[in-house]
Amino acid sequence: MPLRTWLVVLLVVVSGLGLAVSSLAVSSIMRDVLYSRVDDELQDATQTWAREVSSDSFQGDYSKRPPTEYVVMFYTPDGSLHYTGPSTSTPDASNLYIGAGPTTVGSLENDRQWRAVATEENGVITVVAKDLTTENAILKGLAVVQVLIVALVLAVIAAAGYWFIRRALRPLRVVEKTASDIAAGDLDKRVPEWPLHTEVGQLSAALNVMLGQLQQSVISAQDKEEQMRRFVGDASHELRTPLTSLHGYTELYRSGATSDVDMVFSKIDSESKRMSLLVEDLLALTRAEGSRLDKRRVDMLELSLSAGSSARAAFPNREITVVNDTQSIPVVEGDPDRLHQILLNLITNGLRHGGPQAKVTLRLRKEGGDVLIDVRDDGKGMSAQDAAHIFERFYRADSSRTRDTGGSGLGLAIVKSLVEQHGGSISVTSKPGEGSTFTVRLPALESESD
């Protein structure tokens, strides 16, 4: 059963119970009022006209009779009963107590009800009774009217309740439709905003927050899936070139088109090394994105000097300078091996692609609560378009140059992944002919000497 129907039924049932109790209370009060008035009349009759009726009856004068709805009965000491009144029905006085208050009794002949009181004087018991037909008719009419009123009121309550409940639940239907639209693929759909002091407003606000988070999760999942497809496609493309070369040279030698064995083996060895480098870079990127870091306190000045020393060993004739502008010891929390890999990759990148005369400078500085390491080369630089994509996997500013030098296009992607694992960020500024500056930002720790 729909919620609105349940609410209407509940409203009608509760209202019906309330009206029923109210009707019973009104009927009870009305009955007490009517019977109280009859009791007052009976008590008054025993002190006034019932005495006269009694006196006249014993004198044999029956011309005087009680009022139409009354009867008077006299029980004499000898046990005889004298009855006077217009009614032919006789009240059942067997349960009356002399001197007690008025009591409701039945009739000896039929189901008529009486209100009767008994008194005794000079040995004569006088019973005055009033017919309750009129009062019972009033009470019955009142009950019928109340039933009709209750039925009419319940019908009005049901109709009005259905309208108001339907109106009150309209936002839920909007929420339902919004959910259906989202399920159909409209991820930008949102629930209308209602006042926050209402339950529906709070529900809509919570749903919109949840829908926003779900949309971001879906978009993120789609982006990751697209990145994975692109990554697999790029990796496959990069591996296809050396594999094609390997296959071509082996077929060339097998078919007898060349007898230069040294040349064939040299080409095969070169392409094998290129494939090995690509596979190693792919594994390095996978480890960078999925491995745990062995974090500890790291002195970035000492680490920068170590990375510069390692780079000088690989490029003995190139100039690599480390400058500390922090005025203190720059300490961060991180994995020293991974941080060394980051700096060494950036230095190597600047020396390889900046040109044969390029120099690299590592400058350490502090900004706010972060340690910044600027790795600057004064080489060829790159365009703004290349700088915007330089951290993407397999992206090459100069593909022909990179292939000749054996690069895979994954080095800076690995660096970016490692920096982000340390809770930091990396950016680049560059202009053609003026060199490039890579800035690594890492959260700083207070050194013991600070």
Automatic annotation (TrEMBL):
The chain crosses the membrane at residues 143-165. Residues 166-219 form the HAMP domain. It comes from the Bacteria. Its cofactor is a divalent metal cation. InterPro entries: HAMP_dom, HATPase_C_sf, HATPase_dom, His_kinase_dom, HisK_dim/P_dom, HisK_dim/P_sf, Sig_transdc_His_kin-like_C, TCS_sensor_his_kinase. Residues 234-446 form the Histidine kinase domain. The keyword NAD does not apply. Pfam families: HAMP, HATPase_c, HisKA. Its EC number is 2.7.13.3. Keywords: Kinase, Membrane, Phosphoprotein, Transferase, Transmembrane, Transmembrane helix, Two-component regulatory system. It is found in: Cell membrane. PROSITE patterns: HAMP, HIS_KIN. It catalyses: ATP + protein L-histidine = ADP + protein N-phospho-L-histidine. GO terms for molecular function: calcium ion binding; phosphorelay sensor kinase activity. Its main location: membrane. The keyword tRNA-binding does not apply. CDD domains: HAMP, HATPase, HisKA. Gene3D superfamilies: 1.10.287.130, 6.10.340.10, Histidine kinase-like ATPase, C-terminal domain. GO terms for cellular component: plasma membrane. PANTHER family: SENSOR HISTIDINE KINASE TRCS, SENSOR HISTIDINE KINASE YKOH. This is histidine kinase.
